[in-house]
Fold this protein.
Amino acid sequence: MDSTDQSALPVVLSVSGLGKTYAEPVLADVSLTLRAGEVLALTGENGAGKSTLSKIVGGLVEPSTGTMRLAGAPYAPASRTEAEALGVRMVMQELNLLPTLSVAENLFLNRLPRAGAFSFGWIDRRRLRENAREAMAQVGLDAIDPDTLVGELGIGHQQMVEIARNLIDDCRVLILDEPTAMLTAREVDLLFEQIERLKARGVALVYISHRLEELARVAERVAVLRDGRLVHVDAMANLTSDEIVTWMVGRELGEHIDLGERNLGAPLLKVERLARGSAVRDVSFEVRAGEIFGISGLIGAGRTELMRLIYGADRKDGGSVSLAATPGAPPTPVAIDSPADAVRAGIALITEDRKGEGLLLPQPIAANVSLGNLRSVARHGVVDAMRENALAQKQIDAMRIRSSGPGQIVGELSGGNQQKVVIGRSLARECRVLLFDEPTRGIDVGAKFDIYGLMGALARDGRALVVVSSDLRELMLICDRIGVMSAGSLTGVFERGSWTQDALLAAAFAGYRGRDALLHSPVSNEAGSLG
């Protein structure tokens, strides 16, 4: 169902009856059109088929069924390179950059300017820098030196470099897969400005995101996938966010969640004057058994650094971590100088970077779940495959991981299901304290509520949960108390029922007041990351 407002625009791309089957069908009978100068929002739960459809269009995956046409001609790219040569480009969540090369080299890796006809392979560095500055200016990266190594940039700037790379030369179709997940509010505004310029040039865009407020801001139409099938296509103006969610998950999700009856016990985790340089400054708090304690704050406030210190991933300058040896007993200091010490003490960290630090993507679910639980699945030092698969199946069932079984490669799972594998591994270790760092980043609303429900079950079991999130609404939905980090310090702790969004935001800025950093750092640009 195409919007009548868009019907006069020429069709750039059409797909008909597209399907893809691996061990089981992941995409079935999808038909869509994409018109010049429009943004089509593509949304759905994790595992709904969004990435598979995008990879087919982008030449990374061959469809099992169906056909495609580009500007009226048959279109069946055998590779991403072939698709890009035809003007179909894709910015994926997994960045396609080389960290040891400069920004300029990454931008023009396959078309480096030569010094002359008899250059013998020498690169014209002056022209490369000029070309790079021109490309970077399109996405607001004018201030970055083109000779800077990509690995030295923050993840947000890397994302913008990837976007700039895909805008070079002729671009007819641009697919953006969760493009704002790592961007500050200022960078998001720059991206949306660039999208408007691309639309004016007649570029057709597919915009994949779980942030429904963004879809309403940027897209003319929305297409919703559920369980690999296209269930609804309509003009964005015809749908509310709640209606889109209902199409996505097949049921209504309210703004409230019942985490069940819990009895908060005595303090289980106690952090006293924990410090590391200027990143974490004398932070103290305690978390009771059965409690969900949130950590809020601006990007760069020290939230992740605090989690890493508690877990022993970074060396602290001072302070201590204490745990209760038995329920009701007072917490006593424990020596945690490494993640191995934390695991032995019963502390688990569900990392912010699940792909880089939390999972072995080429390995099956079974191997990932048993990682750190080898004693329970090994006999005489050798992993027992039956035990390993049984442990993995137990977590698959408990976590409702959508997969073909313990043998499925983790890299083939959706982001939400990958996150469930990370959590499942920690649950298999029976950890008493769980540190969640951005547990729902990049996953859909249905998977989020699954994870919220899981957190409620863990809290009812008497475990202590610490949850870092950039989404204030998320913390206000699930937490019993919220501590706010600002410039490395804990500036306030708020009880449920006494907090307001304004009070939490004020505490997030409190540590920066009176400092020149407030004017010159990205703090003011990143306030939007608090939701």
Observations:
- Residues 98-169 form one domain.
- The chain has 19 helices and 22 strands.
